[in-house]
Amino acid sequence: MSTINFAAREINCKIVYYGPGVAGKTTNLKWIYKQVDDSVKGEMVSLATEDERTLFFDFLPIDLGTVQGFKTRFHLYTVPGQVFYNASRKLILRGVDGIIFVADSAPNRLRANAESMRNLRENLQEYNLSLDEIPMIVQFNKRDLPDAMPIEMLRAVVDPKGQFPFQEGAASSGGGVFETLRAVSKMVLERLAKSK
Ligand SMILES: Nc1nc2c(ncn2[C@@H]2O[C@H](COP(=O)(O)OP(=O)(O)OP(=O)(O)O)[C@@H](O)[C@H]2O)c(=O)[nH]1
Ligand SMILES: [Mg+2]
User: How far is the CA of 160 from the centre of ligand 2 (A)?
Assistant: First the structure.
């Protein structure tokens, strides 16, 4: 849940990168960490296995400027995508303000994308939350793959109702990374402004 500290004039929001294993969630965070200035980022924490798969989460705090005199601090998290780490995924979703669903454009990950979306809905349900209320954007990542699935096909699988805004990405070379983050943070701040 976002917190507003009036004394410190600070807004804190939690953004979670969700999606199947190897879709590129950690890669998004690493790119952000690499690109943003030291003055706006904190330490990046990554808990990973030897083969670089996320074991628990990645965490990166960044400041996204000032809105109406309030400093906006975003806490970026990634979940571990591997199916058997669901307890961690559920925990990381606690208090989420906005979600970036990173889908993998590789043909052999089509089903994993769909399963991860279903898993996200289920886990949110445990907190009595749904995707009707939590701002979410879908990032179709790995658009650089020569055999990337057509967007329409991916969208039909992960978002058949065409409910969510989406962004194409190639996170390993930075494609779409900041566009996606900007879009979701805007949605989160707009929702916050409405709820006041
Ligand atoms: N070709 C291509 N490869 C990518 C892209 N983004 C990430 N990768 C590669 O995909 C692999 C997995 O990326 P990660 O960011 O670790 O994936 P993840 O979603 O964090 O995976 P888990 O931690 O297991 O959930 C790495 O080898 C990345 O370099 C992309 O846009 N294009
Ligand atoms: Mg990861």
Answer: 26
